[in-house]
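Marked as duplicate of an earlier ticket. Keeping the data here for the record.
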Amino acid sequence: MDDNENKNTQIIPMIPLRGITVFPHMTIHFDVGREKSVAALEIAMEGNQKIFLATQKDATVENPDSNDIFETGTLSKVKQLLRLPGKTVRVLVEGIERGDVKSYVSSDPYFEVDIETFGKTYGMPSERGEALRRSAVEAFEAYAALAGRISPDTVFSIITTEDTGKLSDLIAGSMTLKIEQRQDLLKEKDSLKRLSKLLPAIHSEIQILELEKDISSKVKGQIDEMQKQYYLKEQLKVIREELGESDGQADDEIMEYYDQLKKRKYPTEVEEKIQKELKRLVRMNPISAEASVLRTYVEWLINLPWDITTEEKLIPGDARKILERDHYGLEKVKERIVEYIASRKMAKDFNSPILCLVGPPGVGKTSIVKSIAEAVNRKYVRMSLGGVRDEAEIRGHRRTYVGSMPGRITKAISQAGSMNPLILFDEIDKMSRDFRGDPASAMLEVLDSEQNFSFRDHYLEVPLDLRQVMFITTANTTDPIPRPLLDRMEVIYISGYTGEEKQNIAIKFLLPKQMKKHGLTKKQFKVTDSALKGIINHYTRESGVRTLERVLASACRKAVTKLVEGETAAVKITNRNIEEFYGPKKYEYEKALDKDEIGIARGLAWTPVGGDTLSIEVNTMPGSGKLELTGRLGDVMKESAKAAYGYIRSRTRKLGIDEEFYKSTDIHVHVPEGAVPKDGPSAGITMATAIISALTKIPVSKEVAMTGEITLRGRVLPIGGLKEKLTAARRAGMKKVIIPYSNKSELADIHDKVKEALEIIPVKSMDEVLDIAMNGK
């Protein structure tokens, strides 16, 4: 049995390894590039050159923590260190002894661990041990002979090892085993048990190698047979030519390629490439796999529309009519396209814009791009980037790979049949990255008008001029888009629709579309304006109109059913019968309070489905000065509450509040709908107003809603989503809305009906807020 009594502990730097397991007595070199690993290596070199090497459970994890690393590893000594260009270090280590991590001392700037080692666990073999050793040696010799990659000197040094423990470690380190198998062997302290586990693994690898050898032999035989067939067919071809019986099908295809080359105008580099590849194709056997691959490549080069463009329609008035015909609102997008058409008409070499339409789902980003293509008379191609994570999707695969093909940019141009199409990159914010590359990096060249004149698809191997292409992208948010990529695009923000805008869209576009789809006439089916408003407010909750269209389609289906079954000759939806079609109301919006309340202030919030009002309630009670925040608030919103609290404490005398309130009064701030997460700084002035009201016992006006970030000095800072928030205030029946003075310029984009219904008051300080909300000014 092994002597496991020689245990000792020590604190030592550690490097987590990816895909490598180091065994005792094993000498191996590997590259170190991660900052923590390089730092650990430098500390080890400053000391006794010893370092602990443990393997990661998942090699793809870039920044592992203690849960991502196996507990058992090997105490090793650094034998040699070589610094490579960049920050990479190549290191040669020798395993000394196995050990277990007892605890992690630190993980930054490098891993430092407290380990327990077990000394040398190798003893002289017993009879059973000798039998296991001989079996292992015999099996390893067979494995080495089949593998063919282990040098004879290494094999000899391993099979002449007498210690069973050392032998098992050397064999395990020389074989191709899975990480789990290697770790299981490393974890086993008993050398005989280790050999017992290793033997089945060796025999399994032998079987796999024998199968690989058999497969390789069969493949070689097939290749030899193909070469024989090729030789015989070439002889047969010559004989047929001598007899005048040659089959010229392959020659006809090549001649057809040459004819296309003469008829069309290709860029010089492309024409030279086609000529070169056709010469290679002529010399190949037509039925060979390589000829088939080359023929596909030549067809791609020849069939791309190198010299084909569509004539742009440069009439701003006509373009405006088309855009207005198909879409309601979206004025900024329409204006930008009309500006482009006018500029293009004046300057023929004016580059196409690269636009990014950013807005919530369902507001018409994708559909308006199709109308833009019609307005400028360009071919339209839509490319969804959602879930794209491979760079080759954009740049294509190199021809050395089996089944290689061009990237999606090249395919889009081929699909359009024109060099100046409009290509829509839909959902550009949904791209991701993995070990196959970063598609966003490839998009940098595509969307840069200064670089894309010579875009190189890996498959084509020739430059593709994308300057004439009009690129438009869409996204729900700009946060996931890399900054360099976002910098190359002109971003146009599209906000959600107000209730009036949705009603207009439904009347002009959605309802006629669904009635036509279901075969209904105006006499057979009608929805009153008040019913339509009720549908929008109580059966949909969204920024766009997708759900609204589905809800109207549902009403059309029910109407068709009633008409077909003969229940009625016409269907009319009104406020009285709306629940017959849709059931009870799904959504209710919070309305203004019946009276002025102490400790309750009405805030305004932006949500992904539009604006909403937010009641903030505050209670005070005797206590120790604790501030309690509830309602599932995010970190930013909690910090806003603390900023409001800090402001109040600094202004107690002016506000008429007991200066010692923070010692004897507990304050509980609650935001209703506790299951819904809430965050953001824009409720700062609302929380401050509610707290001051609760402390001074002065009620807050029921007619006032507010939004704005607060500072410790009481300044009111700007917020986002003003359009949606004002719409929500109007819907809730508020009379006055307090907004930050810095947001005053955005009022120009607010619908006139919203501004007419509300008294919008821009403020700069918290004093102004209190005067309006609590003093009735």
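See parent ticket for discussion. The chain is about 45% helix and 20% strand.
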